[in-house]
Amino acid sequence: MQRLNFMQVWTVRTKRGLLRTMGVRHRAGLAVVAVAAWIGPVAVGDSGAGACDRDRLVVALDIGHTPSSSGATSARGRPEHAFNVDLARRVLAHMHAAGLDKAALIAEPDAEPDLWDRPRRAAALGAHVLLSIHHDSVQPRYLEHGTLEGRPARFSRHAAGYSLFVSGKNLFFEQSLAVARAIGGALGEWGLSPTLHHAEPIAGENRPLLDRDLGIYDFADLVVLKAAAMPAVLIEAGVIVHPEEEARLRDPFHQDILADAITRGVVEACGVLMGG
């Protein structure tokens, strides 16, 4: 990761202050403008981004789950798939704004691709990297029943934060790991922290933790990762059963932060992905 210059540090600190003080509508507008100012400096330096031919890099974006198999349910009852659609669309918009014109969704939000079809669709696009967009939950033992905003709810404050998954069985494991590290580093620059609950030695978790600081795990047998004929990373953007984190994840400005970090991570890893 290249060093931040004074202007970049000022930008991050200023955005964090604005995040606390501005209304949602104004924050969302600021983030859309901010991406153009932020992406540029990442494309230079010695991290591999300098070798990036952005107009040739093909990024396949996978919206996790489907309308009929919608994944986790948030603390306030919203299906994970809806969160995934919102974030994937923002990531796509940020990537196009950053000059990654060949970034594309592998399927429309109302499509029903199975797990094996997702990496096949990415390969059909000629993708250099596959990113699968998801939102997270916890094991049932940690869910509690209560009320939120006067309504019955099932939620947990056991875990919060993002996590990144790669597969040790992917033929491009090292490149996948490089992309995950670049995305994790960019998330960290925004002050976001990973959740480590997937490493907990209990049934349903116990994933090997490859990088504690960046929240990167090995999920060797996850089909969308291991079957991909290109580097692949699954991104859990945050824990939607956590009431406060769910609210952040629905905030358009926070979605723009996530989309910015994912985009900058891909740009930084571009040289690796393009064989530079």
**Percentage of residues in DSSP E strands:** 15-25%
Count of the separate structural domains: 1
Low-confidence stretches: 1-48
Structural class computed from helices and strand pairing: alpha/beta
CATH architecture annotation name: 3-Layer(aba) Sandwich
Largest sheet: 7 strands, mixed
What would the CATH topology be? Answer: Aminopeptidase
Percent helix among the residues? 40-55%
Which strand order does the major sheet show? 2-1-3-9-6-8-7
- The average pLDDT is 87
Extended strand count:
9
Query: In CATH, what is the class?
Result: Alpha Beta
Estimated radius of gyration:
18 Å
Along the chain, the helix and strand elements come as HHEHEHEEEEHEEHEHHH
Q: Give the overall silhouette.
A: globular
Distance between the termini: 16 Å
How many helical stretches?
Answer: 9
Give the SSE map:
Blueprint: H1 6-21, H2 24-42, E1 59-63, H3 80-97, E2 104-105, H4 117-124, E3 129-136, E4 144-148, E5 151-155, E6 163-166, H5 173-189, E7 209-211, E8 216-218, H6 223-226, E9 232-239, H7 243-250, H8 252-268, H9 270-273
Parallel strand pairs: 1-2, 1-3, 3-9, 6-8
Antiparallel strand pairs: 4-5, 6-9, 7-8
Helix pairs in contact: 1-2, 2-8, 3-8, 5-8
Describe this structure in words.
The protein has 276 residues and is an alpha/beta fold. The protein has a single domain, classed as Aminopeptidase (3-Layer(aba) Sandwich). 40% of the residues lie in helices and 16% in strands. It has 9 helices and 9 strands. It has helices at 6-21, 24-42, 80-97, 117-124, 173-189, 223-226, 243-250, 252-268, 270-273; strands at residues 59-63, 104-105, 129-136, 144-148, 151-155, 163-166, 209-211, 216-218, 232-239. Helix 1 packs antiparallel against helix 2 (24-42), helix 3 packs across helix 8 and helix 5 packs across helix 8 (252-268). The longest helix is centred in the first third of the chain and has 19 residues, at 24-42.
